[in-house]
Every structure is written in structure tokens, then in C-alpha cells.
């Protein structure tokens, strides 16, 4: 039986159980395109599948485990229904790569990213630079995941009470994300620009549209961000495998909020649960992943300790 038909059935089966099944569906559809949709499940070999696990890399990445998990579920399902009689997924599991170290953008780099968003295009495109810039700014200023930003509809924005409604995000959770007056002005300007462009304004309409009024694609936007970052000249110099990502805007948001609290003399331990809730985390430990210790935070905490110890300006 063709793997294209089997993958379609499998995805429908998982979703019929109430799962969103988005990420694994993307992986399996990519696997299908890579192998060829007309390929039969019995034609697949362990060598072919193993090569796919390393697709695009000569070393183990986080994507290796993402692909492995998706394929394991699919192949188990195929065997349980008699579509396949042999196990073709490697039993040798490599060590996971070291935890990815987030890149924290400086204020100068953030401004450079936002400004470059308006000039990154070499030729006229279906994507409006003004829309790209607004996506990046909203993602950073509200500390959102990029898929949360891209999923926003007009109905989700309440300008009167200054909040956006994030619907069924990670772990099927919804939440309210408030914003201050400067962000309200930012969103208001974008909505005004959008209105002048004659874009649809029904409540269910996506907030981010291209010149043909079609919703912008998240995968396409990942490529756009890479071009913006490269044109802005922002890159890692620490030997890390990954270059700065869109998701690092969310890390930067969390770190900057922490820095501001320290600078304002806030009780950070009491404020952290509020930050965790704001970012849509179920546990405080999930938020801690975003809190990298930067030079700025080290300086602020050092000054606080010196004040506490009576060492400011010299020895006690």
C-alpha cells in the first residue's frame, strides 16, 4: 500500500482521537515527499529510514528525535493493522545533543531586526514588509511563540481593554495576554495601515495577510526571518550549531523583563509566577528555561548584593 495513503489514514486516525497532531503530521508529510508518495510501505528499508532521520545534517540534531518519534508511531500503527510485516526503524538511539543555548538579542539588535524587516526584500513580493515588521514586534513585545502570533485573528484583539486572546496554544491552553499603551499604539498603527490596504475586516479574518489577502504561512516566515537576520548581520560567534532564531525573541522578552525587575528593585521570586502565567507556562520550571543569565543581569545582581553587604563604593 502506498505510504501517502497510509499517512493520510494515520493522521486522520490520530486526529479522530482528539489530538491536534500538527507537528507529527508535518514530519510525516515531509517524509512522504522525501520518499515519494507512490512508494509502497513494503518497499521501505531501514537504511532509507535511517538516512531520512539524518536528513540535512551529518550529525544528530533535535529534529532527529522529532522525526524518530513521528515515524515510530506511524510504523507501529502500520504493523498493528497488517500493512507492514517488518520493523524498519533503527533500534540504535544516539545521545541527545546538548541543550540549545538561546541567543539573547541586545536592544540594538532588536531595533536592527525591526528596521531591516522593512528593507530585506530585494524584489517586490507578495509579502508586505510592514506586515513582517509588525509580526516581529508583536512577537517580541508580547513574549509570544511565533505560531501564537501567526494564528491571531481580528476577533482576538481587544483594543479597549488592551489584550489579545491566545486560543488553544501549546497543551491546548488559551490565555489572555495584556499589553501597555505603547504596544496599543503599535497595533493601532498596524490596523490603520491594514485598513488602508483594503484588507478584510471580519472578526474571523487572520490578522496577517499577503497582498492577495491570503493568510501568511509560518514556514515561509521562518525563511523571511533568516534573510532579515543575515542582512542585519546578526550571527552567533560562540561556535553554536544554530544561528539566532525567531523563538529567541521570546527568550529575550523574558530576560529583559527579569532585568527590568532587578533594576527596579522588585522581588523577582514573587514576580516569576506572574511571568510564567503571562507566557502560558503550566509550571514555573518551564519559564526558567527562558531565563538566561546575561552580563546585564549579573551586573545588576552584583550591585544589589554590594548594597546589601554595605560594600558600595569600597570595602565595608
Would you mind describing this structure in some detail?
- The protein has 316 residues and is mainly alpha-helical.
- It is 51% helix and 3% strand.
- The chain has 13 helices and 3 strands.
- The protein has helices spanning 3-16, 23-35, 46-53, 62-80, 107-116, 129-141, 146-150, 181-196, 218-232, 248-263, 268-278, 284-288, 295-309, and strands spanning 157-158, 163-166, 175-178.
- The protein has a 3-stranded antiparallel β-sheet, with no helix packed on it.
- A hairpin with a 4-residue loop joins β1 and β2 (163-166).
- α1 (3-16) runs antiparallel to α2 and α6 runs antiparallel to α8 (181-196).
- The longest helix has 19 residues, at 62-80.
- The protein is globular and about 60 Å long.
- Residues 300-316 have low confidence and may be disordered.
List the helices and strands and how they pair.
Elements: H1 3-16, H2 23-35, H3 46-53, H4 62-80, H5 107-116, H6 129-141, H7 146-150, E1 157-158, E2 163-166, E3 175-178, H8 181-196, H9 218-232, H10 248-263, H11 268-278, H12 284-288, H13 295-309
Antiparallel strand pairs: 1-2, 2-3
